[in-house]
Design a protein that fits this description.
- By secondary structure, the protein is of the alpha/beta class.
- The protein has a domain of 217 residues: NAD(P)-binding Rossmann-like Domain (Rossmann fold, 3-Layer(aba) Sandwich), CATH 3.40.50.720.
- The protein has eleven helices and 13 strands.
- Helix 1 links the parallel strand 1 and strand 2.
- Helix 1 packs across helix 6.
- It is globular, with a radius of gyration of 19 Å.
């Protein structure tokens, strides 16, 4: 609800009206809850018929989103995309990974470009998968794209959001592994629950991570900051895959570890292995310079927070 010249000057001291796609997912559910707790008005974009006043139907597969909705909102957050953690990545699922990201991002961006009163900011989800496997490198938002399917997917995903750049501030939120009660941690916990902690390869690969709470706080911060372009949403300290899996096993009371050699996954699932075994020293340079502070500064704290929340939620459900 601003012109292009003032698109990066969204007031931070008043309630906002925010449209969110992917609002029912792991991250979207928590983001909507956080925005509403802050007093903001949230409009959820849904692909079925709207059943409440806070829902608006759209059809990203057909490129349909009424730009008149965008005349009424201050910001749009796009979280649409099929899970990267669902295996196997068959040829048809790889097409779904691309289509479920590129289509929604492009649909929103083009609707924003047609809007007579465009929102001040368009935050479109992305991932640190853009950088690929880069052991020994310090990776910032200025680092070049890596190699492989995931890096090409992210490039298409981010480019699809760019038609909105002429009229609003566009941010690509390059997220690390979000440690919360879902997503990648849920998959690791499922294997660990069977009876053993699992360690992928040597356990020495650097995994960029961020707690679910800080992921949501980071998005809320970006709604009213002046940052634009790619922004790394990762924790302020590094962690290896071994540290993350070992602490998860400890929290779940599992002492023994099962090591999964890289070839066991890479042979049948080369694309997924490229994601699981990528080593990335990604730093949140832009967020740090913008004054953002983290609630959880280590991966262990993020995992502990996920378990604490789960225990609290269970207690409340039985109260």
């Amino acid at each position: 609800m601003t012109d292009a010249a003032s698109a990066n000057e969204q007031p931070a001291d008043r309630p906002l009206r925010v449209a969110v796609s992917g609002a029912s997912g792991f991250l979207g559910t928590e983001l909507v809850r956080g925005l509403r707790a802050d007093g903001h008005d949230v409009v959820r974009l849904v692909r079925r018929s709207a059943t409440s006043d806070d829902e608006v139907r759209w059809d990203p597969a057909q490129g349909i989103l009424d730009e008149r909705l965008l005349d009424t909102v201050d910001a749009v957050v796009n979280l649409s995309g099929a899970s990267l953690y669902r295996l196997p990545w068959t040829p048809s699922y790889k097409r779904e990974l691309v289509d479920s990201r590129v289509g929604p991002a492009r649909t929103i961006a083009e609707a924003i470009s047609r809007s007579s009163d465009p929102p001040a900011v368009f935050l479109s989800a992305s991932t640190v998968g853009y950088y690929g496997d880069r052991p020994g490198e310090r990776l910032t938002e200025d680092s070049q794209r890596g190699k492989g399917f995931v890096t090409e997917l992210v490039e298409q995903w981010e480019e699809a959001a760019n038609p909105a750049r002429e009229v609003t501030r566009v941010v690509h939120t390059r997220s690390g592994i979000v440690l919360g009660r879902g997503g990648a941690l849920k998959n690791l916990a499922r294997v660990t629950r069977i009876g053993a902690g699992i360690r992928l390869g040597t356990g020495g690969d650097l995994w960029p991570w961020i707690s679910l709470s800080d992921e949501v706080r980071g998005i809320r911060h970006l709604l009213t900051s002046r940052l634009r372009g790619p922004v790394n949403l990762v924790g302020p300290t590094t962690a290896t895959s071994g540290r993350i899996s070992d602490h998860l096993a400890k929290r779940m009371g599992k002492r023994m570890r099962v090591t999964v050699p890289e070839w066991v996954i890479r042979t049948p699932l080369p694309d997924a292995a490229a994601l699981a075994f990528a080593s990335q020293d990604v730093v949140p340079r832009k967020l740090t310079a913008d004054g953002f502070t983290w609630e959880h500064e280590t991966a262990e704290q993020a995992i502990d927070a996920a378990f604490t929340f789960r225990s609290r939620a269970r207690a409340q459900s039985h109260a």
